[in-house]
Amino acid sequence: MGDERKALRVTRDGAVAEVALCGPGKGNAMGPDLFRELPLVFGELDRDAGVRAVVLRGDGPHFCYGLDLPAMLGSLGPLVTGRPSAGRRAALLDLIHELQGAMEAVAQCRKPVLCAIHGWCIGGGLDLAAACDVRHASADAKFSLREVKVAIVADLGCLQRLPRIIGEGHTRELAFTGRNIDAAEALRIGLVNAVHESPEALQAAVRATAREIADNPPLTVQGAKQVLGWNDRLGVTDGLRLVAQWNSAFLPSDDLLEAFTAFSEKRPPKFTGE
């Protein structure tokens, strides 16, 4: 990993990589550095065969305050102020696509991405969390799909991803009201998988889950993620056809033989991804 990151810090513990939001905006607010670094970091993690699971978390007392408006004014300001023009609208469209691409890099990473959320998770922070595969929170976590409060239609993925996570009704209520919800309500509606007593307990639990995932055969885990992604775009029949094609290509493997051998020898399997 490059060591010139300003908004993200990457560490490794065996097959688990940890990506920490580390500013420079207050509350890890999302500025140009973050949007530039997300595709680079998650592209590297995607290509690194030694990485089998990724933990995404925030440094400091909060996960993410959302968009860093002061930091984004340099690129966003000229496009949303002054006399409207076709050129400005086209440039704004390009910028939105670029920001969406940063979130998509997280969602499209072949390795499972587990999100550990503590403190505030607002606006773009919720877009980022929704792009992950698994979300856990600490009891102090608070969430808000806040864009409606600042006259913006959320455009970085929440309106597309949240309906399949929490359902249409809950998504519409959050999007229309912009209200805050706490960790208990987030758990009730299925936004998070689990709530932990403290940020420290949260980190320990998410890291343990990441290690549990990393102990499984990596291509099988990645296959499950791809099939689940196909399910979002396809009907049952096409999804079944595609998973059959995946398994016909990847089921015969050294890891499958190791699973059978370990079972017969009554020992834990050691998967290599071959």
Question: Can you put this structure into words, describing what you see?
Answer:
With 274 residues, the protein is of the alpha/beta class. It folds into two domains: 8-214, 2-enoyl-CoA Hydratase, Chain A, domain 1, CATH 3.90.226; 218-264. 51% of the residues lie in helices and 15% in strands. The protein is built from eleven helices and nine strands. The strands form two sheets. A six-stranded mixed β-sheet has the order 1-2-3-4-6-9, sandwiched between helices. Strand 2 (16-21), helix 1 and strand 3 (53-58) form a beta-alpha-beta unit. Helix 1 (32-47) packs parallel to helix 3, helix 2 packs antiparallel against helix 3 and helix 9 (218-233) packs antiparallel against helix 10. The longest helix is centred in the middle third of the chain and has 22 residues, at 86-107. It is globular, with a radius of gyration of 20 Å. The two termini are 24 Å apart.
Count of DSSP H/I helices: 11
The largest sheet is: 6 strands, mixed
* Cα separation of the termini: 24 Å
Strand order of the largest sheet: 1-2-3-4-6-9
**Which homologous superfamily in CATH is the superfamily of the largest domain?**
2-enoyl-CoA Hydratase, Chain A, domain 1
Brief sketch in words of this structure:
By secondary structure, this protein is α/β, with parallel strands linked by helices. It has 2 domains: about 10-215, Alpha-Beta Complex (2-enoyl-CoA Hydratase, Chain A, domain 1), CATH 3.90.226; about 220-265.
